[in-house]
Design goal:
This protein is an alpha/beta fold and about 375 residues long. It is built from 14 helices and nine strands.
Length: about 375
């Protein structure tokens, strides 16, 4: 009996020590200083590129699952990015791709990084995402809905999981295992120069029932905050050699992380050039390097209007979309409200090239190349 009591006391003591140790780690633990972040940023030329997904993938799972992993298409389209002058891309991962095949998933991410490195492109990897479909599933992914923007893009881990996150310890453990496995694998990898820990936290789109069976009512509960805090804690526990960030978007969403936890400031802006300049001016007050991880939604946010501003301000520029394909992002966000067999729009919303390498707008290509040449000349 005494032995059992001793074991119980020891167990409780160890549990208390573990809980105490975790409590001492906060999202701000080991945050990089402003000087350290600036030194990191200054070692690179002006970072310019795109959010990258191959044209034959509808979402993150189709990009990285074994059955649909396509080295040839990734290689071809990364070469196109290099030839345009891009030196930086942002790439989304998914927790279910890891859960289904941990070793295979990490190997494919490694293969992708090798392809990017072959084309002299640095990578930002995105860990979690609150955008679009809220109940992701592994396996064969749906075909694109004709004319509907990002009709198959997936949240990670998804709203259903987030609602159970603080109630089910097994969910927290599963996501911690995913995060730490990915970060540990690539924590000293020079091909990955920064981590985006959580894309657009709190983004709960107002889907229509006739598209994917959603209620059509905006989800008022945004249970992302516990996971957002934890992913920063887990990242600090891993001991990354790269900085971490989370974007600000739609006003104050993501602001807490940007102001208090992130090493580098990142943001999204699909508005007018005046709005872009104003937001940059505001974010400069945080005193850290700035990356615009999403912009360019024609006709309001264009390369012509926005890219020169980003270059002038030395803000890294990462537009949404590259080669038009299964994501259907040549169509605008409003196609979720107006589904149907929509003809190709005269003005694409996102994306730069067709799959055969033909640009949507040759003048844009010349502008991008000229702006990059200007930045490189200035750097010398």
């Amino acid at each position: 009996m005494k032995k059992n009591i001793s074991r119980i006391i020891l167990s409780l003591g160890l549990t208390g020590i573990i809980a105490s140790a975790h409590a001492e780690t906060t999202p701000a633990t080991n945050r990089w200083s402003k000087e350290q972040a600036q030194q990191w940023y200054d070692q690179y030329p002006w970072l310019v590129g795109c959010n990258f997904i191959p044209s034959n993938a509808i979402n993150q799972l189709e990009m990285f699952q074994a059955d649909t992993w396509d080295e040839k298409t990734n290689d071809k389209e990364l070469k196109m990015a290099h030839d345009l002058g891009f030196n930086f891309i942002r790439v989304y991962l998914h927790d279910l791709a890891y859960q289904a095949d941990p070793k295979g998933f990490l190997d494919r991410v490694d293969q992708f990084l090798a392809l990017a490195d072959k084309h002299e492109i640095k990578v930002m990897l995105v860990i979690f995402d609150d955008c679009w479909l809220d109940d992701p599933k592994v396996g064969k992914q749906p075909e694109p809905l004709p004319g509907v923007h990002n009709s198959g893009w997936l949240e990670s881990p998804g709203l259903k999981v987030l609602k159970q996150y603080t109630k089910d310890a097994s969910i927290r453990k599963r996501l911690e295992t995913y995060v730490k496995a990915v970060l540990t694998k690539f924590k000293d990898d020079q091909r990955v120069i920064i981590w985006d820990l959580y894309n657009e936290p709190g983004n709960r789109p107002n889907f229509r029932e006739d598209i994917h069976g959603h209620t059509g009512k905006a989800e008022k509960i945004n249970p992302y905050k516990p996971l957002l805090r934890d992913v920063y804690i887990w990242a600090r526990e891993v001991g990354l050699s790269q900085p971490v960030t989370t974007c600000t978007w739609s006003g104050n969403l993501g602001r807490e992380a940007a102001e208090n936890w992130a090493d580098v400031t990142s943001f999204h802006n699909y508005k007018t050039p005046e709005s872009l300049q104003k937001e940059i001016n505001q974010l400069k007050k945080l005193g850290r390097p700035i990356i615009c991880t999403e912009y360019m939604g024609r006709p309001r946010s264009t390369f012509k209007d926005c890219l020169p501003i980003l270059q002038k301000e030395n803000v890294a520029a990462v537009n949404w979309g590259f080669v038009a394909g299964k994501t259907n992002t040549i169509y605008g966000w409003d196609t979720w409200e107006k589904p149907g067999k929509t003809p190709e729009p005269k003005v694409w919303f996102h994306d730069i090239y067709r799959q055969d390498g033909t640009p949507f707008d040759p003048a844009e290509i010349e502008l991008i190349k000229a702006t990059i040449r200007k930045a490189n000349k200035k750097a010398k």
